[in-house]
Specification:
Elements: E1 10-11, H1 22-32, H2 37-66, E2 68-69, E3 74-84, E4 87-96, E5 101-107, E6 111-116, E7 121-125, E8 131-135, H3 137-153, E9 162-167, E10 172-176, E11 183-185, H4 189-196, H5 205-218, H6 227-230, E12 251-255, E13 258-261, E14 267-269, H7 272-282, E15 286-287, H8 289-296, H9 301-309, E16 314-316, E17 323-325
Parallel strand pairs: 5-9, 6-10, 9-11
Antiparallel strand pairs: 1-2, 3-4, 4-5, 6-7, 7-8, 12-13, 13-14, 15-17, 16-17
The structure holds zinc ion.
Residues 244, 246-247, 249, 261, 263-264, 266 line the site of zinc ion.
């Protein structure tokens, strides 16, 4: 084995990570939801978690890119795979090298953190005294390692996978954890990678390419749409018509080209496209002329026909049974 001083020091290639679609679409659901405070609070919490999760992962990506390491590393992100039909799993960061495969479960969690056992859970206490109990990230990491190993084994690739829970928040402090729990802070990453670079070489470049390719080619897209179904919300609880961009109240007809907010008085041009997109994001992947009239609060079927024409939708059926479909796979935002 070569020793570190003889090795070339390398930077990790720029890490690509897709912004979660929920970051753009969950605010649309929150804006359209009629006064159901407990549901709104729970969706706002979910949105906060998606935002915090994504920014924590990005933060670790940028940090990894800034490190020089003595071995070549490949970083795969947004790994969403299907284990069995209807049973998928997601791994945010997987590092591949010729010496190890390492899952990083990034936790952007502030405050004092107690990883307790029996039952396994994480208790967070913020400086304000607020306490939250969450699923144990160590259990989650174990599950990720197990399912990825099983998934690869089913494809004839038998590997050992290592893993760490990494606390990305600067103000996250682990106060209690099981002995030797695989938890590190961000600043522990270079030490960890340098230590792991001393492990013996166990994979050839061909094996690494095979692992990386099979994962990339099998990725499935996480599809929570329509969101009403995903979050168990009755679509009749949604506000109809064009929403005010200022205060999210419904806007009413002012003239053929304009709408006015019933609450703050703002006047805006008609924006059929945004309201129609809300339908596809929140309610259904297809819409009829009648549903369009009702959801957009239009007066007649000609206005609905005109509104539907503003988006490039796919059409099925004839006359009254015509339905317009959002093109499959086309992003909403
Ligand atoms: Zn308004």
């Amino acid at each position: 084995m070569t020793n570190n001083s003889e090795r070339e020091w390398l930077f990790i290639k720029k890490i690509q990570r897709k912004e979660p679609e929920l970051l753009q679409s969950l605010p649309r659901l929150i804006a359209r939801l009629n006064s159901n405070q407990s549901k709104t609070n729970s969706l706002q919490k979910q949105l906060y978690n998606v935002q915090a999760g994504f920014s924590g992962e990005r933060y670790i990506d940028r940090y990894l890119e800034s490190l020089e390491v003595p071995i070549s590393l490949i970083v795969l992100t947004d790994i969403h795979l299907t284990l069995t039909p209807g049973n998928s799993f997601q791994i945010d960061t997987l590092i591949l090298s010729d010496r190890f495969l390492l899952i990083l479960d990034v936790k952007n969690i502030a405050g004092n953190l107690h990883f307790t056992t029996n039952p396994n859970q994480l208790e967070q206490t913020l400086s304000t005294g607020e306490e939250t109990i969450m699923d144990c990230p160590l259990d989650q990491l174990k599950t990720h390692i197990y399912v990825l190993q099983v998934w690869l084994a089913k494809r004839g690739i038998n590997v050992d996978i290592l893993g760490r829970v990494i606390i990305s928040s600067k103000s996250g402090r682990v106060k209690e954890a099981p002995e030797n729990a695989p938890i590190i802070y961000r600043k522990g990453l270079p030490i960890l990678l340098n230590e792991m670079a001393k492990l013996p070489v166990i994979y050839s470049q061909n094996q690494l390419s095979e692992i990386s390719n099979v994962i990339k080619q099998s990725k499935v897209v996480f599809n929570p749409f329509p969101l009403c179904r995903h979050y168990d919300i009755d679509p009749t609880d949604l506000k109809r018509g064009q929403l005010c961009p200022n205060c999210f109240n419904s806007m009413i007809y002012k003239s053929h080209k304009q709408r006015q907010c019933t609450s703050c008085g703002l006047i805006e041009p008609n924006n059929y496209q945004e309201s129609l997109k809300d339908w596809f994001i929140l309610v259904n992947d297809s819409i009829s002329n009648r549903e369009c009239r009702e959801f957009l609060q239009l007066n007649n079927k000609d206005d609905a026909y005109y509104a539907l024409k503003t988006l490039h939708l796919n059409k099925t059926g004839n006359s009254v049974s015509t339905r317009y479909h959002w093109p499959s796979g086309k992003p909403f935002m």
